[in-house]
Structures are given as C-alpha cells and as structure tokens.
Design a protein that fits this description.
- The structure holds two protein chains of two kinds.
- Chain A starts with a helix and ends with a helix.
- Chain A is an all-alpha fold.
- Chain A has 42 helices and no strands.
- In chain A, helix 2 packs across helix 3, helix 18 packs parallel to helix 20 and helix 30 runs parallel beside helix 32.
- Among the domains of chain A are: 129 residues; 143 residues, Alpha Horseshoe (Leucine-rich Repeat Variant), CATH 1.25.10.10.
- Chain B is of the alpha+beta class.
- Chain B has two domains: 240 residues, DNA ligase/mRNA capping enzyme (D-amino Acid Aminotransferase, Chain A, domain 1); 100 residues, Beta Barrel (OB fold (Dihydrolipoamide Acetyltransferase, E2P)).
- Chain B is built from eight helices and 21 strands.
- In chain B, the strands form five sheets. In chain B, strands 5, 6, 7, 8, 9, 10 and 11 form a seven-stranded mixed β-sheet that branches. In chain B, strands 3-14-13-4-12 form a five-stranded mixed β-sheet.
- In chain B, a hairpin with a 2-residue loop joins strand 5 and strand 6.
- The N and C termini of chain B lie far apart (66 Å).
- The chains are: A mainly alpha, B alpha+beta.
Chain lengths: 871, 431
Amino acid sequence: MAMEVTQILLNAQSVDGSIRKHAEESLKQFQEQNLPAFLLSLSSELANNEKPVDSRKLAGLILKNALDAKEQHRKNELVQRWLALDIGVKAQIKAYLLQTLSSPVPDARSTASQVIAKIAGIELPQKQWPELIGSLLSNIHQLQPHVKQATLETLGYFCEEVSPQVVDQDQVNKILTAVVQGMNASEGSTDVRLAATRALYNALGFAQANFSNDMERDYIMRVVCEATLSPVVKIRQAAFECLVAISSTYYEKLASYMQDIFNITAKAVREDEEPVALQAIEFWSSICDEEIDILDEYGGDFTADSDIPCFYFIKQALPALVPMLLETLLKQEEDQDQDEGAWNLAMAGGTCLGLVARTVGDDVVPLVMPFIEENITKPDWRQREAATYAFGSILEGPSPDKLTRIVNVALNFMLSALMKDPNNHVKDTTAWTLGRIFEFLHGSTMETPIITKENCQQILTVLLQSMKDVPNVAEKACGALYFLAQGFEDVGSASPLSPYCQEIIQALLAVTHREDAGESRLRTAAYETLNEVVRCSTDETAPIVMQLVPVIMMELHQTLEAQKLSSDEREKQSELQGLLCGCLQVIIQKLGASETTKYAFLQYADQIMDLFLRVFACRNATVHEEAMLAIGALAYATGANFVKYMQGFYPYLEMGLQNFEEYQVCAITVGVVGDLCRALEDKILPFCDGIMTQLLKDLSSNQLHRSVKPPIFSCFGDIALAIGENFEKYLIYAMPMLQSAAELSAHAAAADDEMLEYTNQLRNGILEAYSGILQGFKNSPKTQLLLPYAPHVLQFLDTLYNEKDMDDTVMKTAIGVLGDLADTLGSHAGPLINRSVSSKDFLEECLSSDDHLIKESADWAKLAISRAIAG
Amino acid sequence: MAPHDLRRPFKRPAISDQQRRRELALLRQAQQRSDSHNRARQLASSLLSLPAADQPPSSPEPILEDQPIQIEPASPEPEPEPPEAAPTRDLNVVQASKLRGLEARRWFARQLMLPEWMIDVPPYLDRDWYVFARPAGMRCFVVSSNGTTVSRLRNGSVLHQFPSLLPSGARRKDLSGPAHSYCILDCIFHEPDQTYYVIDMVCWRGYSLYDCTAEFRFFWLNSKLAETGACGPPAAYHKYRFSVIPIYDCDQMGLQAAYAGVVPHVKDGLLFYNKHAHYQTGNTPLALVWKDEFSSQYFLDTDGTGQVPAQQQVVLELQDDGKLTTSDDPPVVFGCMDGEFLQKSNLRPGNLLRFAIGDESARLHDGRLEILDLQFVAKVNPRSRAFADSYSKVFFQYAARHSPLRIEDLIASIQPNLGDNSKTTDVDMDD
C-alpha cells in the first residue's frame, strides 16, 4: 500500500493529463473508502525520509486540505470530521508530523509545520493535544539548527492558527522566550534567526501581557531593532514587518522607542534594498493609520477615559519625516503607470505622504510646497512628476482655507501640463492630481468655489482632450471628470456642466469605443464617469440623458448578437455587458426618480426588459448582478405595470435566489424581491409560493453566505406587507424561523465588532419581518392569527433592551415593532404590553433619544400603544 | 509580507463604481422599505414630490413663471395610484406654461385645510376641540426641501424663498438628510415681526401627517420644531423666524387664554380644531374660525381697498349654467346671472365675481341663509384669490352684521366639567 501511495502521489503531479486524472481519482476513492487509513498513509509518507520530496510535499498538502477549507461550512465539516477520528489514529498522525520536523528535507519540514498548526487550531480549543507546546519547546534545545528552524516555523504557524485565548500565559511566555532567543544576534544560524523573526510576527498577538511589562517590552523591542540591522536582507525585512505589526498592535506603548525607530527607518528608506525600504515606509503609514483612527474616533477631544490617547508621533516627526518621504518620490520606475500591480519606493512614499497629510492637516503644507516649487518646472521628468505627485498627495487633510489659494494658482499650471508636458508619467499624475483637487476641494460645501463658470469651460476642454491621450492618461482624465461632475451633484438646475452635457457624454462614449479601451481599465473608467454624469444631471439635461437610453440599449443589443466568440472574447463581452447594464441601472434610477422624466422613459421599458432577459441567458455572475440591480430599479419605476414582465422574469428571479455560490447575486436578487413587492403589491401573490419556498431554503442552507440572511428576513416583511393577510399560509414556516433566529441573535455574545455588526443586521432583518407581517395583517379579520406569536415578539424586544448592545437602526426598528404590535393587535396587545418586562423603559429610552428617527418611531409607538390600551 | 493591500489603490479610485451602484441600490431599497412601513403606519401616506427648485421670488412675474408642481395629494382612502383628478397630471410639460402655473396655484390652494366660519357652536367644544389665537397675516404653506425653504400663499404664488433650520431647509452638509426629507408646514406669515407662525404640520421629514389626528399633529409640531431649533433667532442666512402658538384645550380657561391672553402677534380671531380630525384639504367643518371686534380688526370683511363696505359683499363663482355658487363641495347656489348680461360683460364660467348684498335682500329661513338679490360689483382678479367664498363665511358675515355669535355665547356653551365620563366620539379615525 505505502509504495502504491507514493506512485499515486507522483502520478498526481504528472504532466500527462490522463495519468494525473487517474491518480486523482484513486486518491479520492482511497479517501472515501477509508479516511483514517488514507490520512495515516499520507502522514507516514510525509515523515518517511526515504521517499521522494515531491510525493512527501503533496502528501502534506492533501493532509492540510483535509483539515481546512476556505468556505466556512466546508471548514466546519472538516473540523468535525477530524475530531470524530479514532484517537489512536490521530495520535499516530501527530507523531509522524512531529517526527518530520527533524527531517533533513526542508520542504517536508515546512509542510509538516503547517499541518501541525492546522491540527493545533482544531484541537487546542477542545482542550486536546496539551503536550504539543511542550514537545515543540523541547526541540528548541536541540543542537541541530534545522530542527530549531522547523520548530520556530511551526510556532509561527501555530500562533497564526490558534487564538491567544486558548493558550495559558505560562506557555505564551515560553513560546515568546524561545522565539526571541532565536532572533538574538548571538544565534549562529541565519535560517534559525530568520524563522524566529518571522515567528515573532505571528506571535505578537500573544504578547499582550509581555508588552505591558516594561522590561519584557524593552527586551523584545531591542531584539527586533537589532534584527533590522542584520546583514541578511530577509531578516531585516522580516524585522521591519514585525515593527509594522507592533505599530498597529501596540501603538500606545511606542513613545520611548520612536526616536530610535525613526533613525532606523530613515536609514533603511535611504540606503537599504527596496523590500526593506518599503517596509520601513510602511511603518510610518501604519502609524498614520492609527493616529487617523484615533483622531477620527475622538475628534481631537481626549478625556481621561479615552481608550487610546493620541501621541502625535507623526506631528513630532514631521520636519524629518516629510523630507525623507519627498526623496522617495524621485525614485520612480519607468512604465509604473502602465503596470497595475506596480509598487515601489515612489508609490509607497507618496501614499505615506498622503496619509501624513490626513494625519496632521495644515502643518504638512509648508513643508511640501518648497519641494513642489523647486521641482515642478525642472527638465527631468522625474522631478516634475515627483512634484506633481507630492501636490496631489497632500490635497486630502489640510483645510480648504489652507489649500484654496494654492490650488487656484496651480490649476492653470496643471491644465497646461496635462496638455503640453511631453512625458506620460507627468501627464498621468497631473490628471490624477486634478481629480484629487475636484474630489476634495470642489463641491457645494466649499466656501470659495475653485471652479467657476469662467474656468469650467477651460477645464472641460482640457479633460475632454486628455481623454484622447494614451490609455493610462485618458483613464485618469475620466477619473477627474468623475469628481468634477460629482462636485456639482447638488447645485440644482444651474449646474455649470449643463451646457456641456451633450459634449461630455459624446466624448465619454467615444472613449468607450476606442480600440485600446481595454488597457488601463479605460473603458470601465469611461462608463463609471458616464454614470456619474447621469447621476448628477439636472432637469435641464434630462432630455440628453433620455437620448442616451436607446444608445446604450443598442450597444447592449450588439453584445448579445455577437456569435462564435473565443473564451477570451466572451470574457470581454461579459465585462462590457456588465458595464452597460450598470449604466442602464443608473439611468433608470435617475429618470425613474422624477415624475416628469419617468413617463417618457417608460416607453423603453419593454425593450429594456427584453434585453435584460437575454443578458440572463449568459452565464456570468457579474452581469447577472448588474442586470438584477437594473431590474430592481426598473420595477420601482414601472410600479404595478411590471406585472406584465413577471412571467418572463420569474425563472431568472428564482435562479438568482438559488445562486449560493455567487452570494452577491443572491443578495441582490433578494433585494429585488423587495422592489417587486413594493411595485406589484398584491399582484405579486401568484409568485409568492415559489419565492417563499426559495427564501426558506436559502435560510436553512449552511452553504449560503451569512450576509444574505438578514436581507431575507427583511424580505419576509416586504412580502407580508404586499400581500397582507394572504401571508397566512406562510406563517407556520416563517414564524418559527424568525423565532429561532431571534433567540440566537438576542444572546449572541458578540466576540468582536464585526460579529456584533452582523448580529445587529440580523436583528434588524428579523424586526423588519415582524413589522411587515404585523402591518400586513392590520385591519384584517385574521389578525388573531398573530396573537400566539406576540408574546415571543415582546420577549425578543425585552431581551434586546436588556442586552444593551443594539445599534441605532435596530433600536428604531424595534420600537417600531412595539408600535406595530399595538397598532395591529389593538386591545389584545394592551395586556401583553403591560405584562412585558421592559417595554415601558424601552419606550421611555427611545422617546428621549437624540436620534430623530428613533424618537419619531417611539412617538408613533407611544401613540399606537395609548390607543391600544384605551381601546 | 506583500505590499499593503490597502495601499495599492492610492492612484486608483477609492471605491469601485459597481460597489457604489450596489450601495446606492441598497440605500434606495432600505429607504423605500422604510417608506412603505411608514405608509403602513399611516405616517407617510404622502405621494408628494416637490420640484427640484422653485423660481426665486425676484422673478418679475413669479406667479406666471412658477415651476410645475408635480404633487399628488395624499388621499384619505388607501389609493396607490395618484388621483386622476390631480390637475397637473396630464398636462404637457413643455407647453401651456401659463395654464400650468395657474393649475399649479389652484392645486396648491386646494391643499390647505380651510376652516369653516363658526355659525353655531359645535357640541362638546370643551372636550373635542382645541382653540388658539389666529395671528393676523397671510395663510401660507412653507415647504422645506432640497436645501431651501419656500413659502407659498393660498393662491399658490411664492411669498419668500430663504434658508431655514427646518430639515432640508438650507444647504448645510451637517444636516443633510435624504433628499426627499422635506417638510410642509401650514403657517400664517405675520408681517410686523417677519414671523411664520406655524399653525399646523402637514409633512415632517418626508413623513406625511395628513392622516394623523390634530392631537397628534400638534404634539408632533411642538416637539419637532423644538428639536430642530427651527424657531431659534434668525441668523444672517436665516431671514425669517418661525414660531409656534400656544394651543389650548377649549375649556373655559383655554378659551379665555386664547381670547384674552397676551401674545406677541396681532390677533385675527380664534381658530378651533377638532382633536380627532385628520388634515383634510379644502373646506372642513372640523376646523372653525371665529372672530369678533375685540379679537380681530377684520371682523367684518373688507373690500379690495381695505375698507369695510356699507353693504356685505360676497365673492361667488360663475358656473356654466350662469349659476353663482360658493366654494363648498357640493357648492351652494346663491343666485343666477342672466345670459344677456353675461354676453355683454364678457364674463366666462369659472370667473370669480364680487357682489353686494343689500340689507333687506338676505334672510334666514329654517336656519339657512337665503339671498334674494345680488348686485354685481366687479370681476375678481384671479391672481388675488383662487376661490369663491364659502357658505359659512357668507353666513358668518351676514350674522356679524345682524346678530353675531359672541364670546359670551361660546363661554356659555362650555359647561364646567361635572365628571362627565362618557366615551369620546372619534371622528374620522380608523380604529
């Protein structure tokens, strides 16, 4: 058997497709027939130094994949499957794995490290494998460097997989001691030192207690800083990565080290190799992130009870930090603007400068202006580009007061550079900078507008001309136009863009038709800008937008006619369809929002719907999502008349609701069901059996992404509100689901903010469902059908009130439900509400809320309750 | 470690437009869901949509150049389709701008709840009614939306346009709510102190209050205006002031307070609102106006020049068949024009005509007012008013000249409360 496995594993990596396929099937069969034997033979293969390295590596990889998966539900299955295995088998596998750490073959050791960490991630929370850390630490004292290296690597993976809560502080101390010792300059082996430094990166999350102790923190920091001076590049890089991680995890503990860290990073940025220098810049970007967050959260008002004070590290470092960053801007690469993935010193430095500007605001301006003035007219393109990039980087953060005067002077220069500069990089950055000017300094909230009727025409002329430039420049010009239009979004009918609307739209359409529009995402940018121009159009320009409808429809039609495409062409075609559907969605939403334009637009409804149905015939998730969104908007605009499309559309609606894999499509479709309910009202009734069946299936599925579940509950409410007492037959299915979800969500001890946010979304969905159902039955003779559920609803509200962790949205919906209950159940609700533990307090609290939406709901609930109790 | 994922897009758009489309769609759906819940709660049965921007009042002919008002009134019955009768509905937007302006004004005028004149004292005045002093001034709608506030007179023409602290009443980023977060207040503009006295609230932040009882509307009005600070002193950008009026239960104390209490404005009679009545557009007997010489300088109707004419005057509408009717629904016929006179005088159906009533030519018969002889005075400029007099007004004015309903009569009708615990009668409530 063992010999056979080796061959199968090698065959599974064969270049010959049929051999490979056969081997893969054998492996699958083996796994299905006898999982314990399968896993055992894989671990034995991995541990066996006699075997070829390729079969060992694959054995380890399959083992790892048998323990973990990306999808949460699959992952849970695998965890349960492992836990259910025979203890003896598991012990044997673990023994093989630990044994592998001593193997002379690096790949085998490394693979085993990862598998060990995966098993630890499963077993330690179950209080199993308690001896693991002890046996790993005993390896550290071995003399052979390769065992030490493998063990430290394992500890690193271990810290990545296992949550700090399940490891005792005593063991944490031992792990950290081993790791930090391994990093020490006295460690002779480079491999060991590198493994230890990388392990520390993951172990930092375990070091909370140690970082609170001055002595231990000093020691760790000293070792990390020393490692940044190692002669080995990889160690220096790993050490800076540790500093970056420390800057975000232990920001408040850094004050006494900042001077040293500044010196280390400055030296690295100026002298070290790029990967190291990039991490050194990243340290400062990360400090900016922290300070921006802190300042955002407290708005500059610090009190004794602020969690984390702002130390203003950036402000203090500013006079030295800014010149260092400005130097990096001159280290551009040729062609970096054509390369989507480019990331180099100049880009990292500019990004950091942008963050610095957001952190300190006005103070950055005088430090950057001399650099700009000195370089912006230099003959070397690098200097002109760096100056422009510096300018663009500091436009967000400083106050408009500080920037407006400068921008007014710079604007003309930028416009002329965009036309005349001979260098593409300079033009690219110039167009981007113009976009940043429009994004941050133009709009109805600005006291002194930088764009006037006078210079508007000039700006447009330049941007439209620039849209004919090479793709990367044209794409930035589109971006600038996007923000130019956005800034006029709420000026009303007198938009200075109105006279040029036709011209702008023509120019954007021309860009979408360029041969090279596929490069630098130019076509996408052109459509996005077109969308923004449509969103910001006014009554005055509505006729021009109306003319766009048949144009976009024709384009979509053409993509659907194209035949016999290669797979590459098909992909491009799908992308284009997505963009066109997106554009139609924006147009529908815009024209459908005003009564005047809606009726004129609806003449196209039949044809548009026809096109959308044909789009659904193509298999591409993005396109479906876009078409679905557009249909939601169309249903809203069409109202009850949408019923004539339902027969044709319904199959795709159901398909969307069944799309577990592409959960975004499913989520959007659920939203569209809501649109349909509001548009069709009781005319949606014939389709409700199918829709409800599908929604209930979705809720019961553990494959569906959890984010879709709250909107499904809300959708129950939409349906109930639309069909009223006809919801009766769904009550026996929907109500138990709502009840059990309510129980789960009421007590969900939210481990973190993300979980709490999700819990609140779920609560809101459940409450919206209750609200819709209660209001749907209002004035119906069948109201009494809801009576049995009322105590549970009230109990849910009580629990929510007592848990004290609901957000404002939930609070508003919850108090509304209390009102709905009283409103619909009338006098029956009175005694129930009187008996409920906290309704009264809840109502009082909402009545005195500062949030006007909560207060309004509460005022209404109060009225409804008083009527219920009186009547 | 790979370059920071968040850093890469610095020179790229921060957010993809697709994500933006998705978010905007979700936002729209959430808003509409909330609207439909509110509609179900009868908080927002409004189908109102306001024009994006009104002409500034500086326009030379503001009345004729008004923007079309695409507003469909909330109807008390659940009615998803806007009523076909909405006058602006089928008009071509491009043509007939004058007609549209007039139609729009007429429409606006129909949106106000118009109190009938009190010709006898309603029963249970103390239990079912509120009373407050009516400020002297122009009745108007104040609409805040899209960052501006516009007031419109009863005839629909724009009175002022100004920024206010009402929701959506000024361009202020920090207060910006959803674009449709408009408000409609029923006000009286009191010239001497440049103040809008808010007498009723029709819409608040997009919530329609049409189908709410006066009890609720007044409660809402007082609490919401206080919250927003809209009644604060006018800033440099906030030219006109808003103020609320003390509203009293119409018991003896309340009636005295409203009648004789000191208020910062000139009084023009008393207004009585039935507590249970919804905001009903047009003439309604559930809101009443009453005046005497003490409480109003307009006790007796004045003519176009502001003088009290020797004879009572009435404004009536000329119908197709020559009949002269009041603005009531159904209209009350007070007389008829003979065809020959009509042809000579160039009058058309729909015209509003002013008549004088001789002292001896009107009489009360079985509690109804009958007019025996109408003397034609003049055609009324359609821009100065949109409607004929109501029957109750003609009656009240007649009574005022002959046997007025006095404050003593009102007070006498209110019995001191002797522990009458009989159940209140709800009016127009769907309970």
